[in-house]
Amino acid sequence: MNRRFLLILAVNLLCVSSLFGQSGKREVDTRFGYGIYPLTFDLFNDNFWGCAWHDGYPSVKEDYHNALEFAGDRVSSGCFSFGRYYKVLRWMDLGASISYAGTYQTIYNSANPGLTRRDDYHSLFFTPTIRFSWFNREYVRMYSSVGFGLGMMFSSEDKDKNEAGPSIQLTGFGISVGKRLYGFSEVQSVGTLGFITFGCGYRFNVATFSKKR
Amino acid sequence: MKRALLSISILFCIFSLSSCVIIDEGDSVKRKTEAAKIIFDNVEDNISAMVDLCDMAVKLSRWIDAPESGKGALEDLWFPDYKLRYEGDKWIFRDMSYYFTTGGKSLDSLNSEWIVGYGTAQRIRIKCTGKETWSVKCSGSLFTCNYHLSDANIILTGRCPLLSGSGILFDYDVSGSGSFITNASQSYNYPEYDSNPDNTLTISYNIAQKVRFVTTPDPESYYSNYDYPRYREFRASEGEMDIEVLDESTETIHAEMISYTPYGVVKYLTFKGYREVWTY
What we know:
The complex is a heterodimer.
Chain A: H1 2-18, E1 24-36, E2 47-48, E3 51-52, H2 60-68, E4 69-71, E5 74-89, E6 92-104, E7 106-109, E8 116-118, E9 121-136, E10 140-155, E11 163-177, E12 181-191, E13 196-208
Chain B: H1 2-17, E1 21-24, H2 34-65, H3 68-78, E2 84-87, E3 90-93, E4 98-101, E5 113-118, E6 122-130, E7 133-142, E8 149-159, E9 171-181, E10 202-217, E11 232-246, E12 250-261, E13 264-271, E14 274-279
Antiparallel strand pairs in B: 2-3, 3-4, 4-5, 5-6, 6-7, 7-8, 8-9, 9-10, 10-11, 11-12, 12-13, 13-14
């Protein structure tokens, strides 16, 4: 699994850096975002969307264990992300985001409700992204984006539940308002960053490397 | 500019951190002895299966001993849904999984012993040990009600039934002990015994004095509206028993059955130091 992780990471970084190399100034976009309802790996465990799959009735042992405890609400922190994007063409940005999403649940002991344990999942994602700006004005930009990367999920309770897998974010419609300091929102989205994301960012220009002639 | 950026960042964090979303509602709060109820129900089912077989055997014995002129009425009364067949040295109820080997003796004769069989290996021995008293022993038996692998050594004494209804012969006082390993799976499609040890419990019970098992109408029976319970089940209605559950740790349950009411049996279950009343 570690080799696969490193290989995907290397490919992603190569893809991101392959379009650099032109001289001049380049716009850099740094943003902080928050997404609601991110898709994380724990949503696809055997307790799929809150329903336990069984071929028939649970066994007596399962019924007994289920009766010894009961679960509180499972709460999602949403997805906190930090992204950095480079404008490589007037209509295309390349970049990546690092994000965190957590889900938290308290499990109570039926015989002693004061006795609790945690069932938390912490997910980290690295998502290289291509953004297509199909409406570019000085203060308003509209775009769509596609991101594909890698993520890891850590369980607070059981190390066997730790998982690694793909990170995918598809955005149908995004809008940013502002010239340098801007706010943004993305809807029609699905993926590890969330169904709806919003946040703020800052754009600045950096000089790029130019080859000696 | 820096102040603006800092203010926006702080506001963003405050809003984000207070916006946790519930993605899955939790369970309703469970009673402290709910796990004990599950175990007790399985113990009651296990004992009830043996009481039911013994009851069937006693009725069959009395039917065999009855004069020819009375056999028809008794058959309609006690075995309304079965046809009796004598094959080889066994009595068989058509459409029932069990067969009864009598040894040619009445089950009311002292020391007479019948064997109730199921398939090729599952056997229960019923022996008359006194007036309307029988011992029931089994080892490694499976009952079709739940397919738990069972051992038992219990004594049943016939008593006047609590509920009036033609078709009921006795209620039974039960004493003794037994144990069973629960079935690892209870599949719709594969109800046979599954011995996966990772998903089984070992449960043992001990009735030091006696527990009264009464004949009650089966609440799930379509036919319970008839003037007598055609499908009946035995429920523990009075007495006390101790139960032990062997899991990652050993837990004990104390069950006290108080009385049978139209709303169910009133019982107290004590589990992990908590005593709660259940009526069902």
